[in-house]
Write a structure and sequence with these properties.
heterodimer, A: 383 residues, alpha+beta, 4-stranded mixed β-sheet, 4-stranded antiparallel β-sheet, 10 strands, 49% helix, B: 249 residues, alpha/beta, Rossmann fold, 9-stranded mixed β-sheet, two-stranded antiparallel sheet, 27% helix, electron transport (chain B), Electron transfer flavoprotein subunit beta (chain B)
Chain lengths: 383, 249
Amino acid sequence: MTESHTAIREEVAKLCQQFPGEYWRAKDRDRAYPGEFVAALTEAGYLAALIPEEYGGAGLPLSGAAAILEEIQRQGGNGGACHAQMYIMGTLLRHGSDAQKAQYLPRIATGELRLQAFGVTEPTSGTDTLALKTTAVRDGDDYVVNGQKIWTSRAEHSDLMLLLARTSPRDQVAKRTDGLSVLLVDMRAAVGNGLTIRPIDTMMNHATTEVFFDNLRVPAANLIGTEGQGFRYILSGMNAERILIAAECIGDAKWFIDKASAYAKERQVFGRPIGQNQGIQFPIARAYAQMRAAELMVHDAIRQYEAGENAGAEANMAKMLAAEASWAAGEACIQTHGGFGFAAEYDIERKFRETRLYQVAPISTNLILSYVAEHVLGMPRSY
Amino acid sequence: MKILVPVKRVVDYNVKVRVKSDGTGVDLANVKMSMNPFDEIAVEEAIRLKEKGIATEIVVVSIGVQQSQETLRTALAMGADRAILVVTDVTTESLTVAKILAKVAAEEQPGLIILGKQAIDDDANQTGQMLAALLGWPQGTFASAVVPNGDRVAVTREVDGGLETVDLKLPAVVTTDLRLNEPRYASLPNIMKAKSKPLASKTPADYGVDPTPRLTITKVVEPAKRSAGTKVKTVDELIEKLKNAGAIA
């Protein structure tokens, strides 16, 4: 990591210190959106890290965004409330027209427009994205959208949604990956006019929703790229997402390990610190080793991504290893703390619930293993 | 008006320092270093004066190891305009620093010098006072408010009995106390801009100052561990115990 990233980490840490554990616990208890935290990050320009300078962002490479998100998690916060504002715009940046980029990116950079909702997953298709059933049918100057999405995070806290919908029936396309298109949906105008958002209560404070489309009219001008090519556009953004989520998991793991080792040194039982017992030391030391190994994979994935190589395998493996490392660190941390690990005021049980998500989202571990088996090791496709 | 802000790189305030086993000092290996918090307050105050249109330029200066450059970049990211690094590997003593700062001030001709009242590493609380004496300028130490007005500055000082306001003629030296302000964190665009702000590298010799230490540290020890206390039920019992311990007659 370069020197500037050290400076970025330090300043992000200072920002996060304005939002201590009490802040996150209150939001968690009330299942409330951490709007003040998101506003502070936005005002300080961190969510515009990846937007090119010509559109008002900082134009940082992926490693800069990874450093920001890792630091937020390391400080005990949760970037899940807004991390997508950083990377969803990548699809618009890579595949949008010059007019679309000029219209949206500068306002996404200032935070005036929030583009942090990504409508892909559906209740009946799950990870089988090509089986999605939401349709967008061209009608004059509009597309008419019908269908349903689920696990659409932050939909209630986003102005725009990047939507993947079927524009050609599955049996009428030349290639199986054709026929899906990406639309930029202005949700502010759409709610109540064909768009319904329903929050889903989950085990942690993560503003996720299900979204219903009922003859929602979206201007054809909001089509990103070429009709029918949407699946490829979405795939191209997934490596960045996986790498950034992996960086967040590394931050979580470091937070858990810092907490666990500090407590193990202080807590006295039977007249000596519990950290003197190998039964306490070893799980923490092992979690540290696991975190460092995962961190190296994250760095390698970033290096490949920034070099313009196909980072698919490394991005996937980094996400899997980092999510497993943060979970192992959480496990060691809660066990080290004994009963206190379950007390909300220690923040451990909250982080424990929050970091569990990343073995499931944005892609589950099994699908990553399938990817590695098929694309790296050349075994037959299993699904 | 130009403001000069000296800043020091010190062990981060969150670090639990450990005394080296040979008792010669504090272990600095692999320890997080940051800007002295009182200096951060000084940088913040200078930036606020610039935002109010009172200051026109903020020059930050640090005397120390090459890595003090990072501390200066932090100040530049917060909003200072340019930086001077006086590189030296020897332990910097207050008088050495004050002498170099006096020479920097003679060169830069600032209207105001704002610096931390003390650095949290050696807690000497000397540099500001020594600097004012060397320059022959008035000083307002332990400031909780700094209000420039024309060619004068009103400095509210936190003293034992409460608050005291002194009215100083500029140029002057002000040292900051904890309650002067709350320093900002830098925004991402400002961190990026700071990278291209000018940073001049100098040596003590450039200012004709010999940094060789004149003081010797004989021993550094950890504070004694507190022994356990006892609880008393009544005031009479307390007085009895204090008498027995010889604390009162």
